[in-house]
Amino acid sequence: MTGRVSYKDAGVDINKANLFIKKIKPIIKTTSRKEVMGDIGGFGGLFHLEIEKFKDPVLVSSTDGVGTKLKIAQIMNKHDTIGIDLVAMSVNDIIVQGAEPLFFLDYISTGKINVKNSVKIMEGITKGCIEAGCALIGGETAEMPEFYKEGDYDLAGFCVGIVEADRLIDCSEISVGSRIIGIASNGIHSNGFSLVRKVLFEEGKYDIKDKIPGLAHSIGTELLRPTKIYVKPILNLLKSLKIKGMAHITGGGFIDNVPRCLPGSLRAIITKGSWDVPPIFDIIQKEGSIDGMEMLRVFNMGIGMVIVVSGKDVNEVLERLEGLGERAYEIGVIDKRSKKQRPLSFV
Q1: Residue 287 pLDDT grade (very low, low, confident, very high; cuts 50, 70, 90)
Q2: 47-70: average pLDDT
Q3: Which of 275, 298, 307, 309 is the most exposed place for a label (fewest CB within 10 A)?
């Protein structure tokens, strides 16, 4: 080998990475809360927790990615909403336990930094953080040539929230007769996209720009609908109403997620047809000849968040959610469970 070799020659452009950081600093500052200290670019993200506001605080954390929904964003070359999905997947997990999100960190890995696309990703992440009421205090962008194909990238997110110990939702107060309310999703959200791509693109031979009867937009636009963030409506309910338990309907759909919020002696009975199922799910099921129970195990089927409340609170919860702009439905009830019964059934 002749001549000197630089890091840029190996595929990593430090100057481009620094330009990216410079461009996103003012975007990230829009998420700042007064508790945040320091500036983006340090070795660690700083967050000043005013502990005197709490009596017995519990920190709740979550980490997640977006999965192969990223493939849709990359095919469409549309990167401004996928960051919302990233934030939603973590903040929706911690709100299930009653925790208010405090701060968020992101990780972007790519073969080669595309400053324009990366800024769009960060715009989505900051929008998600603002919607969730948390601060974006740091992150990492890793340029990994030869590990990712050109144009490919992956995302991961990390969220920390807080809740008073005596207000932690651990599902222990769920009892026979408790009612189940489902809050509508925004479509597929961020789960099941490997199956979606196989059914629609590999077997169905559809193009991302195609329109299917029943959909208001192209397939690509429909699939990129960002995951709903349920933090603010749930926190609103918690101010004056008792929520006994919650389940974020993500990977594993209804079948795997609803039982996660149930004591072992109880089961959830879900009434089919009690909520509106978005057309995209019917299209996927028909195109792939997918069994109904498989659909319920892979997808949210139009319900992104399940909450369990007392029967006396059902109407008020539904009215409050409607006033907050959410579509919500009473979809089931809690009953006793025998040793032979499954924790979740449909009627």
Answers
A1: very high
A2: 91
A3: 275
Rounded mean pLDDT, 71-83: 96
Supply 186's token pair: 């925004």
Tell me the pLDDT tens digit for each residue of 315-336: 999 999 999 999 999 999 999 9
3-state DSSP assignment of residue 270? strand
What is the average pLDDT across 16-45? 64
Closest CA to 271 of 141, 182, 168, 157: 182
> By three-state DSSP, how is residue 100 classified?
strand
Residue with tokens 């001549």: 3
- Residues in contact with 18: Cβ distance below 8 Å, sequence separation at least 6, in sequence order: none
CATH number, domain 14-167, options 3.40.50.2300, 3.30.1330.10, 3.90.930.12, 3.90.420.10: 3.30.1330.10
Task: Evaluate whether 262 touches 342 at the Cβ level (below 8 Å).
Answer: no
Q: How many Å is the maximal CA-CA distance in the chain? A: 80
CA distances from 325 to 162, 179, 183, 318, 320 (A): 25, 21, 11, 11, 9
Contacts of 244 (CB under 8 A, 6+ apart): 169, 171, 173, 174, 175, 178, 308, 309, 310
Q: Which residues contact 7 (CB under 8 A, 6 or more apart)?
A: 13, 14
179-346, what's its fold? Phosphoribosyl-aminoimidazole Synthetase; Chain A, domain 2 (3.90.650)
